[in-house]
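Much of our argument rests on the idea that a fold can be written as discrete symbols. In the encoding step, the backbone of a single protein was reduced to a row of integers, each denoting a local shape. We regard such an encoding as a compact summary of how the chain folds. The record that follows shows the chain in one-letter code together with its fold in token form:
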Amino acid sequence: MSEHQPTLPAQDPTTPTDPCVAELTVLLGRLADLPSAANDATRIDRIAIMQQVKSALAAAQAREAVTFKESRLADERAAGVPAARRARSVGAEVALARRESPHQGSRLIGFAEALVFEMPHTFDALTKGLISEWRATLMVKETACLSRVHRTRVDGELADRMAALSDHQVEAEARRIAYRLDPHSVLNRSRRATADRRVTSRPQPDTMMTVSALLPAPQGAAVMAALLQEAAARRAAGDERSRGQVMADTFVLRVTGQLRADQTPVEIQLLVTDRTLFASAQTPAWLQGYGPVPAPFARDLLGRLDEKAKTWIRRFFTDPCTGLLSAVDTRRRLIAGPLRHALIVRDLYCRTPWCGAPIRHLDHVVPYQDGGETSESNAQGLCETCNYIKQAEGWTARPGPGGAGESVETTTPTGHLYTSRPPPLPEAEPVSQRPSLVVHTVRWREVVDRCAA
């Protein structure tokens, strides 16, 4: 979950207030102050009508998104913008307005266009509140490989039944009809899905992590068969580990090529305060790629590494006086070395509000060619998509009054302003209340000097 705490978009004060925006704002306020219902039957009635309103609003959002894209295309066409560059950032602007990631914004635009232009019955059912936005999404997803004509036919065949079917039934029926209308497109879609193979990770409770792979079915089956076979052999030989434990350890060993599962040849980045390290404080540390970890876990991680393990712990410390990372500056254009590591640890995720993707690019907030410095105060971590979006026409960004480490203000082509802030560094107590500050400061400096050496 993102910790950027972005501000609400601020509309240009010279723009007249739209009556619809004003009415929806009043409705939002009324919903927040909705009085309690008199009885349970009324509560169920409210839940039912609220669901219909949610669906109708989703349809209205889709219609507005399509109109917005068409307007932007027309404006940029008139301005002579090359066709390949037109409406490049429309999805990102819609995503910010909906508090979603830019990647999700592009998907929402595609969903809206399919509904409005190719699936009139699904769009009508959504507008009337007869189906949910997710059910409409399933209709769009399962017909994505079809031509416009065939997609419209699927929409028509399910028009009278859509509201009565479950999500699973809608998905299955749409897929069945699609295959009947154009089996070659469905099969080609299955073959193209191989290009989407990938490995992802997700933090889990108790300092655990799920690493998952999306693979073609034969490869996935082969991986599982190999792990199961190894687990069965180990267990038969007297290994006391459970089958799941053997499979997990074997997975790590075969991916990393190590002799032991805890000897992984990687660099681990650990953000830790001086009191967590030296004074047994309970302030959580931050393990890059996972998130917050308990203080004892961090101390144990630093103390129990096997000398033979090819593992490096890159430790980042917050200054005991200021509570901030030490400033790192360089005159080079390329953001690399200590500055790169410091920025990744400072920002943790892409700085675009509501994105939350891993950092892939280190970006000059004020572009280098416009005089922007290569420094911590003018740099931010972004994912690849957001970095390219920032370069589109009409987007501007500037560091906040305290530099990018405090905030970054991004203005979209429509004049909406969004402010992002890095997540707070781990700190359990105010500096003024911390005992033995001088001692900890000296020890902190000693550790930093050793790391620098």
